[in-house]
Amino acid sequence: MAPTFILQSTKQAESHAGVLTPTTMGQMDPFSLFLRNALRARGLTQKMFAQRVKCSYPFLNNVVRGLRGAPDNVETWADELQLEGSQREDFLNLAALSRAEPRIRELIIAHERQSQGDQEIKVPRYLLRQVDERNDDT
């Protein structure tokens, strides 16, 4: 199992999901945090959501806990969460980031921190294309 990159700033994932959580809950993978908060904001349990997106509860639970990356059918998940506009785009970008190799994630995050002064993290599209291309090769 590949280690999950831990992000220092969770501001973007928290705000786009519609729920602010205390930063004392610890550091998490940004996709997992976004998903967890989106489920809470919509009043969905993990079991309910797993049934809706036709995946097993243990699989979803591992994604929410940051132990697994986003699934291949993440678009279905975004549909079920009724994400639109920038929320949907951020969700899909974070999903691609969660599937990247740890070293690629580190490079993307380091690039963003350097260019934005460790504020909100937004993943450049050209880097995400590189991540997707590498995932297609495996």
Please describe what this structure looks like:
The chain has 138 residues and is an all-alpha fold. The chain has one domain (11-137): 434 Repressor (Amino-terminal Domain). The chain has helices at 11-17, 30-41, 46-52, 57-64, 74-80, 85-99, 102-116, 125-137. The longest helix has 15 residues, at 85-99. It starts with 10 loop residues before the first helix and ends with a helix.
Q: How would you summarize what this structure contains?
A:
With 138 residues, the chain is mostly helical. It contains 8 helices and no strands. The protein has helices spanning 11-17, 30-41, 46-52, 57-64, 74-80, 85-99, 102-116, 125-137.
Q: What does the secondary structure layout of this molecule look like, with pairings?
A:
Blueprint: H1 11-17, H2 30-41, H3 46-52, H4 57-64, H5 74-80, H6 85-99, H7 102-116, H8 125-137
Helix pairs in contact: 1-2, 2-6, 3-4, 6-8
